[in-house]
Amino acid sequence: MNLVLPQKTPDARVGEIIKLAVMAVGGQGGGVLTGWIEALARSQGYVCQATSVAGVAQRTGATIYYVEMAKKGELEPVFALAPAGGDVDVLIAAEMMEVGRAVMRGFVTPDRTTLIGSTHRALAVSEKMAPGDGIADADEVRAAAEMASQKLILADMDGLAVAQGSVISSSLFGALAGSGALPFPRDAFEDAIRASGKGVDASLRAFAAGYDAAQSSAEEPVAPETLPAPELTGPDRELARWKTLQGRADSLPEPVRELAGNGLMKVVDFQDCGYGEAYLDQLDRIVARDSAEHDWLLSVTAAKYIANAMAYDDIIRVADLKTRAPRMARIHAEMGAKNGQLVELTEFFHPRAEEIVSLLPAGMGARWEANPKRMALMDRLFNKGRRLRTHSLRSFLMLHFLGGLKGYRLKTRRHQVENAHLQQWLEDSLKPLDDDYALSVELLRNRRLIKGYSDTHARGLTKFATVMNAADLLHGRKDAAEWMGRLREAALQDPDGKVLEGAIQTVRSFV
Amino acid sequence: MAERSFKAEVEHLRKGDGDVFTGEGILAITKALLENGVGYVGGYQGAPISHLMDVLADAEELMAELGVRFEANASEAAAAAMLAASVHYPIRGAVTFKGPVGVNVASDALANLSSSGVNGGALVIVGEDYGEGSSIMQERSHAFAMKSQFWMLDPRPNLPSITKAVKDSFELSEASNTPVMLMVRIRSCHVTGSFATKDNVAPPLTVKQAIANPQSDFNRVVLPPMSYMHEQDKIKNRWPAAERFIVENQLNEHFGPKNAKIGIVVQGGMYNGLIRALQRLGLADLFGRTEVPIYCLNVTYPLIRDEFDAFCEGKDHILVVEEGQPEHIEQHLGSFLYKAGRRLKLYGKDVLPMAGEYTGQVLLDGVTGFLKAAAPDMLPGKVRAPNAEEPKIPDLSKTVPIRPPGFCTGCPERPIFAGMKLVEQELGKHQITGDIGCHLFGSLPPFEIGGATMGYGLGPASNAAFDGGGERRAISMLGDGGFWHNGLSSSIGNMVFNKSDNVAVIVDNYYSAATGGQDVLSSRAHNDTKATNNPISAALKGVGVEWIRQIDHTYDVGKVRDTLREALTTDFKGPKVIVASSECMLNKQRREKPIRNKAIKDGRRVDVPRFGVDSDVCTGDHACIRLSGCPSLSLKRLDDPLRDDPIAHIDQTCVGCGNCGEVADAAVLCPSFYRADVVHNPGRFETWRAGLRNRVISWLQTRRDAKRLRLTGAPT
Asked: Residues A223-236, buried b or exposed e (16+ Cβ, 10 A)?
């Protein structure tokens, strides 16, 4: 009898087991991909075992498929049923954050793992919900993936597949073939697709796209969206006025020029050249108080947010945007409508008394707004959902008419309110300028909080007011600007302003 | 109609002697049932054995040829009760459900069955929903076997072992007159592999033949004094008989050398995980041949004292690998050792964690820990003295968002919760209980509506404490699956009888959707072998609910909101039940897509709706998403230096369910949503009219554009 068992040399064949995990989001076709891999391995004289999890936990959630394979031997190999950290040869992640999850769970290690990931994003609910920008940072995941993997293949596998009229499982299978991580020839992969018998041609095209992406080794260049640069077009007489305005914008300090140009286009598109002049006048007043000392940051910020404030979202703007010719063309393209097919459009409007009254002449609108009875009447008359079939003439004409009210817009109650708000905001923002330049910049940036329609818009205004008012608390502190920025970020985290409330409490605690 | 069809795979179930079956675990189990002369099968769906029910349903024709009866039972309790046929008749029966929750529901019948004892082999196939991918509380079914004294098999997770376990279970059941539970874990159910098949065997006695010759025996009835005799019979006869059978037929297996100072006792289901740990330590080869003695418990209850004693002979250190807690097996083995006066050291939930799944890493760490203490010389050098430095990989835990399951694209339950959220904004927060089913996703962001439930069909019952009423009515959710499973009596009957003043919302999506789209009584589809089309509202009336509101189109968010508001504010005293019905989108798409594609191909007029967002109108406040969470409603960043926040965007996976438009309207969100209906194969008149409209519209557009400046090429 042995006292102690002798130490064994590890079985070399154990090292030859190929362990492959697929991390996907439920509904991405991970099962199909796993089925192909299995069929492929068996056709090449390998013993193969796959496992998956089915059921409610899979619905749109993160899920893992797992495959092990080994050359056929004298006995049946013993395979594991789930991936283990540090012990995965090929990791296929069908989405960018799933790439991150794979790295986080230790399934990707530099000594052995070929990581094949799709860079496209299927945003998690938590990323989409925030009123601000809650989208996770893909660059962090990319950096970690580069460090963690032995070989890394990243490409927009979803985009590649969709372009071929197929789904991501095909392009990922192609990338797996292209990666060379499995000891099987390309034909064998393609045969597995053919044998499955469904949508074979599209699958093979997407397979080829994935294969090429993997072979080109270098990551796919981030295709710069080749959108044409924005420009203004229109009748010659107007264009001549526009040239003058452009000249004025071009004479602004260099750092301000670009955003001022964009802002100018936005307000002229919103209204007309006269309105563009007003925009530049506003901006000039800021530039006059600014200097190169701070790289004109105040003016740059103002150029952006004054344009946004001046191009407010009223019914006239929405109606105009909804009835423009390029919109129809864009929708046709997006919906993939072909010749001979018709596209019918339904718009969802829900005007309330506030919106209707804001269209009245300023004085009258103000009086009506102050009269609760009249507002209640207006609500009874107008407040209901209206579905406008804008492909039909009746609805189109109505919106076309509303969109054509630009000549009257500057006389409306809405314009009066917006303009007053704009002036107040600028005044409040510039108040601390002389002794705290950075705080003024932050105050201008708070304009970002105003967005949305109806209740959302109202909540945005409340948050804006709360954050702006905090300037009085903070003014005079060294870190006032930093705190102002923090308050704004807090306001963007949840719709009800709970995080903001907490942040304001913190501020109160130290002032 | 179930979500996944096994019609093609079911053909493999006809394989016979000399053939090889390659496929999934659940199919292998079905094949084994047929090879072993099963007389009747049944069960209740639930992950991870939902697909077993689907396979059985799809194999109904084949089973009918053999004289095997298939029953889609109303609940796990009903399934377990069906095994009563094996009490008197020498017929093999098998039922399946998930564990431990299904076993909870079935436990009454299982206890009675175990007391009565069986003549024919009675088999319960339990899919143990434990560990990653599980959707329930983390417990073990093992305790049920111990309390009712039925036997539990936990075979090694490969197809030959699992199918052999089916055969062993039937024989063990008959040899000991005791029902047997065959446990398969989440990944074992769907593990793929091969095994050599045998011919199917028709049951020697079919249920049809049996009913022609009825039998009864009051000694089998669980009433005093027979029940006392049953208890004695279990201990004196059935248990020893079971032990004899297990030992004689070597149901438990030994691997590795006979003589060594150490050994490992492992549940059959954990065998592969253990071998992988040993493989990684260089202590087992590809085929699992190992230098460490292993006693593999394919039968985890009862434990065989003599076998264990023999295994311990000459050993100083024993490790028990037992997943889940409490550590029933380890405790039991410890008591064997203590009573035998042995001094060997027992390891288990000290080197291994007490709670949680035994993943690859956990087992590697546990086995390493055991060997470090018991036989450090066996460990490879790099484990004893690691020198390679682990690379520092940035921590992504703050970056990568969690991705819990949620409503599918176009789910008809989403607008129900959108409506509820709108009512909440109006009337304030209410006490809400959820139930088991997809609708429980409503408790997650973005809705965060609803709370815990105490079980399937128990949503309204979980609010019973509040039945007496108060300032605000309590709301409870219930799915159609839960309603028919148990909800009609335990929840609705309870509300009616106790004069509850609360509100119940029944989410009727035409299927037992969360478990894979199986039909239930109120399903709308025609089913050749099941009676469908029994409306929930009729059942409600039948048990005495007077205030019933039927919503036939849940996507009408305004109607959902108004109906719920009415239920919460009406003067009516008594239970108020809203039945919100619309078909599960996953199943609807699967059903309709092929029909639609064919219609388009055939040149018929088809209208395909999809939603879109005007990006220049959307301000990026995401209010719409907070009332939706639909996978197809996402965000995109615009290449516009004037904009800070990403805006809403609908991708091409949108199925045009209508929720976005309804929510924009009901919640007065914003006018950026539009619905585009692409009309395939439009009629002549339609095309002519559209052409006319387009000419007028583009004339108007051109006329206006001639007078103003406008932005082109801007990011939209």
From this structure: eeeeeeebebebee
What whole-number distance in Å separates Cα of residue B99 and Cα of residue B102? 5
Pick from B589, B570, B581: nearest CA to B523:
B581
Please state the separation of Cα A145 from the chain's center in Å. Answer: 22
Measured distance CA(B228)–CA(B404) in Å, rounded? 49
Chain centroid to CA A453: 20
Q: Which residue do the tokens 């108020």 mark?
A: B576
pLDDT of residue A3: 39
Domains of chain A plus CATH, in order, are 15-216 (3.40.920.10), 230-311 (no CATH)
Q: In sequence order, what DSSP letters do the residues of A390-437 get, joined into one string?
A: TTSHHHHHHHHHHHTTHHHHTTBHHHHHHHHHHHHHHHHHHGGGGT-H
pLDDT band at A5 (very low <50, low <70, confident <90, very high): very low
- pLDDT higher than 50, residue A306: yes
**Under 8 Å between Cβ of A298 and A437:** yes
- B158 in contact with A at a CB cutoff of 8 Å? yes
CA distance A478 to A133: 27
CB contact under 8 A, A387 and B661: yes
- The residue ranges of DSSP E strands in B156-234, in sequence order, are 180-185, 192-196
Eight-class DSSP state of A180: T
Q: Is B392 exposed, middle or buried (0-12, 13-18, 19+ CB in 10 A)?
A: exposed
Q: Of A394, A322, A386, whose CA–CA distance to B689 is shortest?
A: A394
Contact: A135, B637; criterion CB under 8 Å:
yes
B292 touches chain A (CB under 8 A): yes
Measured between CB atoms, does A101 come within 8 Å of chain B?
A: yes
pLDDT means per 10 residues, chain B with 716 residues, are 82 95 95 98 94 93 96 97 97 97 98 98 97 92 98 98 98 98 95 96 97 95 96 98 98 95 98 97 95 97 97 97 98 96 96 97 97 93 68 89 91 96 95 93 91 91 94 96 97 98 97 91 93 97 98 97 98 97 94 94 96 93 92 92 94 93 90 95 96 96 94 65
d(CA B673, CA B665): 10
The values of phi and psi at residue B69, to 5°, are -90, 130
CA–CA distance, B161 with B449 (Å, rounded to integer): 45
User: Per-residue pLDDT tens for A465-498?
Assistant: 999 999 999 999 999 999 999 999 999 998 888 9
- pTM for this entry: 0.94
pLDDT of residue A6: 46
* Per-residue model confidence as pLDDT tens digits over B451-493: 788 999 999 999 999 999 889 999 999 999 999 999 999 999 9
Cα(A335)–Cα(B551) distance, integer angstroms = 31
DSSP B157: S
Q: If contacts are CB pairs under 8 Å, which of residues 346-365 in chain B contact chain A?
A: 359-361, 364
SS3 of A101-142: the string is: HHHHCCCCCCCCCEEEEECCCCCCHHHHHCCCCCCCCHHHHH
Residue B263 backbone phi and psi in degrees, to 5: -160, 160
Q: How far apart are CA A489 and CA A483, in angstroms?
A: 10
| Separation between Cα atoms, residue B615 and residue B351, nearest integer Å | 57
Q: SS3 of A65, please?
A: strand
Residue where the block lists tokens 């799915």: B479
Given CA atoms A329, A332, A333, A339 in this order, what sign does their dihedral have?
negative
Q: A residues 262-321 near B, CB within 8 Å?
A: 262-263, 265-266, 268-269, 272-273, 304, 307-308, 313, 318, 321
Question: Of the candidates A119, A96, A102, which has an alpha carbon nearest to the alpha carbon of residue A21?
Answer: A102
Give alpha helix (H) positions in B17-91.
25-35, 50-58, 60-66, 76-82, 85-88
